[in-house]
Amino acid sequence: xxxxxxxxRERANAAAIDAGTQVGLVALTVADLDRSLTYYTEALGxxxxxxxxxxxxxxxxxxxxxxxxxxxxxxxxxGHYTGLYHFAILVPTRLDLARSLxxxxxxxLPFPGQADHDVSEALYLTDPDGNGIEIYRDRxxxxxxxxxxxxxxxxxxxxDVRSIMAEATDQPAPWTGLPAGTRLGHMHLQxxxxxxxxxxxxxxxxxxxxxxxxGALFVSAGGYHHHLGLNTWQSRGAGPAPxxxxxxxxxxxxxxxxxARAEVIARVHDAGLATTQIADAxxxxxxxxxxxxxxIGAAPDAQTVATLNVAQxx
Length: 314
Description:
Blueprint: H1 5-14, E1 22-30, H2 33-43, E2 47-52, E3 55-60, E4 63-70, E5 83-90, H3 94-106, E6 113-116, E7 120-126, E8 132-138, H4 161-170, E9 183-190, H5 194-204, E10 208-213, E11 216-220, E12 228-231, E13 247-255, H6 258-270, E14 276-278, E15 281-285, E16 291-296, H7 302-311
């Protein structure tokens, strides 16, 4: 029997998603794999870990973070459907963010978008297919401001670009790409309805709501500022993009144990939603057909991701 919204929320309050849950990796459809590899490796600093046919796995420090699959002539992501808003690459330090910014300018890319979110400092870019990207660093957790009801203070203020670039000037080093310790910090999705998003991501999956802005919701596990951003700024009432469009194929959530994953799957089934076994992962779809793969433990190696990427034929 399908649970009501209130029943979903009651269950989530009683059994939130495990605090050790992390975002694992993101998979995108691109129109031209060679073009995308040039962008992601030479400009952004990802390492190519594996290439098989129309798929490439990229990462940093030996950890896979990004799977690209070529769909020749895929249409540029138009931005007003549900799907990807941006995926967010978390670098370990402010110096790493400074070196990324310096390198982006050295290779001739336009100055990226920027914002100070109080909990983090961020740069924003768009890849050749229109996929949004954030590169950011977190401020230490003891500098975050927590408000009532478990909400964290996040804002959008101008970034102190001069201060950031001074970090790289004061500690010059050759560019060697994204450093070890870089990971996928969060995903930000365009969705059609905020209340539905809360019902699914909080009420069913069990994430905590950490912030809410006009047209946007932010949720997390374990007291992080957000593992998922969900907004309707360009997609209110919309559905997925037409087939043949570049964009999000899926992203993964890595839970710390089989029991932690089983608890999430039980809530999904109790809500009347289907799951699918794909290799060692369990797939579930949100109300806008965004595919989430639930894994266990650390992200798999590049070959396993390539196998998963083929199996997840969407």
